[in-house]
Amino acid sequence: MATYILVPGADGTAWYWHLVVPELRDRGHTVVTVDLPSDDSAGLDAFADAIVDAVRTTAPDPQGPVVLVAQSLGGFSAPLICDRVPVDRIVLVNAMVPRPGETAGDWWGVTGQAAARSAYAEAIGRGADAEFDPRTDFFHDVPADVTDEALAAPQAGPPAALFAQPWPLKAWPDLPTRFLQGRDDRFFPLEFQREVVRERLGIDVEVLPGGHLLALSRPREVAAELLKEA
Predict the structure, then answer these.
(1) What does the alpha-carbon distance between residue 161 and residue 143 come to, in Å, rounded to a whole number?
(2) Which of 214, 224, 169 minimizes the C-alpha distance to 193?
(3) What is the CATH number of the domain that holds 215?
(4) Do residues 51 and 7 lie in contact, with contact meaning Cβ atoms separated by under 8 Å?
(5) Which residues contact 92 (CB under 8 A, 6 or more apart)?
(6) Can you give the pTM of this predicted structure?
(7) What are the pLDDT tens digits along the chain (230 aa)?
(8) What keywords tag this UniProt record (predicted)?
(9) What is the residue-wise DSSP string for 89-120?
(10) How far is 215 from 6, CA to CA, in rounded Å?
(11) Which structural domain, as residue segments, surrounds residue 60?
(12) How many domains does the chain fold into?
């Protein structure tokens, strides 16, 4: 049996993974979820502490392989725990991949995300100047009831401090790493992610059907990929 540590993206809530969790637990695996800090002064260190605390509370003695899973912005914080928790491998999901010394605030311009999103919006008929809209960019393939539940919750957003702190690791953790990418992600388009991930991690993305919020739109498919790590 494996232990899965599921780190959310910019919304910072364990709820993001709530449809994936039973798919893993029903097969006997241990699942650790975490609500990340929302205080505006919380930076990467506070995020890492929150993840480690959740692991120590839920799985103080992890059994089997420990699989660290990070969604979107979680790509900046999740790797920081690898010298504090016995992680065996990492799975990134539509994630941001940082370089040493890069801030999450700088990542967007350095990678060219805005231009990539604009080009993709034009390619699918929305127009190159399409304004960002959560329902259109994030929830376009998420069931309506799940979307309504997500948007009815308080929308705190990630702390400002998180975007200002340089990524402190000297290199990506020396662990087997996979990258799951939504084919129809409108926020981090597929071809954009292929280039960024190949350049920064030296691996190819594995394409799944769905958009940016795969754990909400395709939870069974995501769980099936994670179960390959057990």
Answers:
(1) 33
(2) 214
(3) 3.40.50.1820
(4) yes
(5) 69, 70, 75, 177, 178, 179, 180
(6) 0.96
(7) 999 999 999 999 999 999 999 999 999 999 999 999 988 889 999 999 999 999 999 999 888 999 999 999 999 999 999 999 999 999 999 999 999 999 999 999 999 999 999 999 999 999 888 888 999 999 999 999 999 999 998 877 789 999 999 999 999 999 999 999 999 999 999 999 999 999 999 999 999 999 999 999 999 999 999 999 98
(8) Hydrolase
(9) EEEEES---PPTT--HHHHHHHHTHHHHHHHH
(10) 11
(11) 3-227
(12) 1
8 A C-beta contact, residue 70 and residue 64: no
Q: Residues 27, 29, 35, 37: what is their CA dihedral angle, to the nearest 10 degrees? A: -150
Nearest CA-CA partner of 8 in 78, 62, 99, 58: 78
d(CA 41, CA 36): 13
**Cα gap 39→98, rounded to integer Å:** 22
